[in-house]
């Protein structure tokens, strides 16, 4: 039996491989999927036809490989001028090659394939193994003479009779199996009628399971509900304590209205500036106290005249120097009088003038400074403000705890309402119960 077909450069196929399962004897599928090429390749291996159009365009040769169930591989090779076979036996490292054998495939290849054509007495041949796509089963589209000649062949006739008997036996076995299956089907229908009431029983069992699950859920939730109730009682106690504390805090007298302290801040800031200026003035006075007393300042009109005269002299001196430069060839002028004392006097005079002006500015600044006001003690006010801030902080913390307790109380109420809604009724007496009545009665239920 053939297990694999491989086409290489065959017609339009560059490489196509098809694995065949056990018992496959027909290929089906949509158009243009390669069914005809596979059938034609199998026919080429079995008959070695002459035409060369099997070689794919651009290729040197076409190959069709057929692998049998015993591991034998038969390769049909078609070149432009010749054709040949390669047969690989299991365990062989090199194939048996056939190139000069005439028109008919080699006997070894035919014996391995077992796809021989049936020769008729009239000289014709019939292919009983490979059929074309649009042609019926062999002999059905052949003349009566070909059918008679085919059945007249002793070997093939015996083979067909054996096939006919086998088909008859399989048909009888199939009909007998069909009757047995029909009888068994009737028996199964009768057995199923006995289970007609089974769906109702199954539904009742399902309801019983659901009720049991609900009862188990309620039983499991009772401890949680008891724990929730205990927590709720503790929270109520905390809420009562916090309410009493808030009442006590609310009884505290309100904080007195704060006096506007903007002017006080401005005054304190001004006092700080004055104190810094005073400290700076004291430091300046301390520095100036070590200096010598300035000499009396006299009128400087004569000194100004002298300075003007001196500047004029300097101008004349420059003019004279320019004249001297122009008269280098002349003899040197006489030595001028000594003026070092005059220069020292001028420098001392200028220094004294600047020092007097600076001291005058400092004196004017110190005279405009007013005495700092007396500072009032504010220790009691600071203590009162500290107590007020502490009380306000305690009030805010108590309010935050009160808000948190209220939120927790609302959450517990929702949780209790959800649990009571799931229970639906009192697990002890069976009476209806709701969350509001349950909470109004102090988490007790009077059935």
Describe the structure.
By secondary structure, this protein is an alpha+beta fold. Among the domains are: 2-116, 3-Layer(aba) Sandwich (Rossmann fold); 153-194; 202-249 and 387-447, Four Helix Bundle (Hemerythrin (Met), subunit A). It is 57% helix and 10% strand. The protein contains ten helices and eight strands. The protein has helices at residues 35-47, 107-113, 144-152, 154-193, 198-250, 262-289, 301-326, 340-367, 379-423, 435-440; strands at residues 2-10, 13-19, 61-68, 73-79, 83-88, 96-98, 118-119, 125-126. Strands 2-1-3-4-5-6 form a six-stranded antiparallel sheet, covered by helices on one side. Strands 7-8 form a two-stranded antiparallel sheet. Strand 7 and strand 8 (125-126) form a beta hairpin. Helix 5 (198-250) runs antiparallel to helix 9. The longest helix has 53 residues, at 198-250. It starts with a strand and ends in a 7-residue tail after the last helix. The mean pLDDT is 80.
């Amino acid at each position: 039996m053939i297990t694999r077909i491989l086409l290489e450069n065959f017609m339009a196929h560059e490489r196509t491989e098809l694995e065949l399962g056990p018992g496959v004897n027909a290929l089906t599928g949509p158009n243009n999927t390669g069914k005809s090429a596979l059938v034609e390749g199998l026919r080429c291996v079995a008959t070695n036809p002459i035409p060369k159009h099997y070689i794919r365009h651009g290729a040197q040769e076409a190959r069709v490989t057929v692998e049998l169930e015993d591991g034998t591989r038969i390769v049909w090779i078609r070149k432009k001028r010749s054709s040949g076979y390669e047969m690989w036996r299991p365990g062989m490292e090199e194939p048996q090659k056939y190139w000069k054998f005439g028109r008919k495939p080699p006997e070894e290849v035919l014996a391995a394939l077992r796809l021989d054509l049936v020769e008729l007495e009239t000289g014709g041949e019939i292919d009983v193994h490979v059929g074309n796509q649009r042609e019926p089963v062999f002999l059905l589209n052949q003349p009566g003479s070909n059918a008679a000649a085919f059945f007249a062949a002793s070997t093939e006739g015996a083979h067909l009779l054996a096939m006919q008997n086998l088909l008859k036996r399989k048909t009888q076995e199939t009909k007998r199996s069909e009757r047995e299956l029909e009888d068994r089907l009737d028996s199964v229908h009768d057995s199923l009628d006995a289970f007609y009431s089974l769906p109702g029983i199954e539904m009742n069992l399902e309801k019983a399971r659901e009720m049991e699950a609900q009862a188990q859920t309620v039983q499991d939730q009772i401890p949680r509900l008891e724990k929730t109730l205990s927590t709720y009682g503790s929270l109520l106690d905390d809420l009562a304590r916090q309410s009493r504390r808030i009442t006590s805090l609310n009884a505290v007298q309100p904080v007195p209205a704060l006096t506007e302290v903007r002017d006080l801040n401005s005054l304190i800031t001004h006092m700080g500036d004055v104190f810094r200026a005073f400290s700076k003035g004291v430091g300046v006075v301390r520095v100036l106290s070590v200096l010598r007393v300035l000499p009396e300042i006299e009128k400087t009109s004569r000194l100004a005249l002298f300075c003007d005269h001196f500047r004029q002299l300097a101008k004349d001196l420059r003019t004279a120097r320019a004249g001297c430069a122009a008269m280098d060839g002349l003899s040197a002028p006489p030595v001028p009088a000594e003026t070092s004392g005059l220069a020292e006097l001028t420098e001392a005079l200028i220094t004294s003038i600047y020092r007097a002006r600076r001291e005058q500015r400092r004196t004017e600044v110190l005279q405009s400074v007013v005495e700092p006001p007396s500072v009032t003690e504010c220790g009691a006010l600071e203590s009162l403000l500290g107590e007020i801030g502490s009380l306000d902080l305690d009030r805010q913390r108590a309010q935050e705890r009160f808000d948190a307790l209220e939120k927790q109380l609302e959450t517990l109420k929702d949780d209790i309402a959800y649990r009571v809604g799931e229970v639906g009724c009192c697990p002890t007496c069976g009476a209806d119960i709701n969350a509001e009545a349950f909470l109004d009665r102090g988490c007790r239920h009077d059935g």
